[in-house]
What we know:
Blueprint lengths: L6 H9 L9 H9 L13 H20 L8 H7 L4 H7 L5 H5 L1 H22 L15 H49 L5 H22 L5 H5 L5 H8 L4 H14 L5 H26 L4 H26 L3 H23 L7 H35 L10 H9 L7
Main location: membrane
GO biological process, one term: regulation of photosynthesis, light reaction
Protein name: Bestrophin/UPF0187
Amino acid sequence: MTTLKPPFQTLNSQFKLQIPLKLSPKTSKILCSQNPNHQPPPKPITILSILRSIPDWADGIKERRMKQPRPLYKHSDWIRHRSSVRHLRHLLSSLNSRVILSLVPPVIAFTSVAAVVASYNTAVVWHLLPEVFPVLRASSLPYQLTAPALALLLVFRTEASYSRFEEGRKAWSKVVSGTNDFARQVMVSVEEEDCLVKTALLQYIMAFPVALKCHLVYESDIGRELQDLLEDDDLEILLGSNHHPRCLIQFISQSMKLLDLEETKRTLLESKVTCLHEGIGVCEQIVGIPIPLSYTRLTSRFLVLWHLTLPIILWDDCNWIVVPATFVSAASLFCIEEVGVLIEEPFQMLSLDELCIRVCENVQEAMTSEKKIQETLLMKKEAASRDPSLNGHPTSGNEQKTRSNSISPSSR
């Protein structure tokens, strides 16, 4: 049995000795730099790289946690979720929270500013600095006037993000229910004569939620996730397309053309394809259109300016307590803003992996039990045709004896 080589390998082997390879010194340097064994020189350590080390560390943790799969809740999870010891559990797990770890850079920065302001004012009060240096203090009245505005801004920002999260959840609920209903309609409408096309069509339907999930979630490996659902030639065509969910819809549409269906059934199945198109459109709009950036920038600037001037406002009343007060204020308010930013892109927060697995399991279970259900219903139909009084339910031997004994002698 001969193995087929890919076209580019065949062309390589044909022209390997025919085309002389001439490289300039500049090209050879570029190729050497692209060698995987060639390690690039280490980057020089600068002040900017030192300042960026903590934010890069926090962002790396947050992005890795965002890629972790999220399971759907079960009954045991809900019991644990509403447990009376949840507050202690949440407090002890604070250092493992990606929201809290992502706030390490701004909280450290504003707490350091508060410590610097407190140290400066202490030095001025103790006359460690010349008298020309004033104590940094201000009235708290401006903060009392702007505090409600900051609170409303954070509430509106979080509410807008949650509305996007809810919209994404509803869009995926429609995709999942539409996929299950589509598969059910195919199993009911397609006859056994088109068994091969029917099986292929159901595979494409099961693969659609997975392709849509990989299209929406960054750095998803669609080839690995679909290798057990699609044939190799179908998967090759799918990976070569620019839009994987729409390519699968083309597979579905072309498969439906090969089926011998009545016009009403075909129209019904086409409406299910339209629902899949609508799901793609809604999800792409959520991913491509964020909350207006001016709104996000305003919230961020307001929080930064608030906490930069907070130690000066609180100095007269708190003195060195401004340091823990700034820490608590920055950790709480920036945490609210961070949650709003995280749920603004909902598909990273939803349990899409588990939903796709459930769709595949439901369709495969329906395909497996289809013949058994048909055989059971045919047996009931045959029994009902033999004895209409049974209402389609076959009776056991004891029930038949009871029915025969209950017949009156006159009827005999």
